[in-house]
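Class, study these two lines:
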Amino acid sequence: MKQKKALVIGGGSDIGSAIVKALHAAGYDVVWTYFHTFRPENPGKGICCDLRDMEQVKVLFSGLFDDLRDFDLMVTAAIPFLESDNFDFGGYLAIRPFLDAHVYAITSAKAFMSHGGRIINMLGQCVKKGLPGAPFYSGAFTLLHNLGKSINAVEGRAGELSVCDFLLGPVETREWDGLSEDMVNEYRSKVVRFISPKQIADTVVFTAIQEVMPNTCELDAYY
């Protein structure tokens, strides 16, 4: 029986690293990308790729890496939480390279995935209501969410490629250390507890092995 292969975009993040470990434990041969944070404890193969550099992203999906041929699952977990004013065009420019990289990865994946391959995207619940204080982060997720739904409407129905978007509530990661105190306190006032990266990773594995994968998986932490 062929060993399943998975690619995790953003395997150096807290969420991505937990997903890499969980997929490996579930029997996947895992390749993962990183940039700022290399995780020596991660199993599988790590490939350095700055998602802000489209040329590096194109090389990643160029077919040059034997490890990135005929994989069964791709998980994206690499859009950083970037605060900005709702009317600050600079906030859009800051998030756009990450969005472009994710769109390129998703639109390139079909050529390198097994028939019936699966994509799982780590998004946020802000796709439904927006997110004052991080509008372009929210907008990036919304575009990816609608892209996934469009793929499912065609390729998903044909059994060629399907997408599941995880809509996450607040997650316990290092990203909170870089945010404003007001935003952190606002979130903490609304949640029962933050979601753990391990909980997300375990749910990714559970979702990936289902005979019929859902289009959306919502993990909530709010009251």
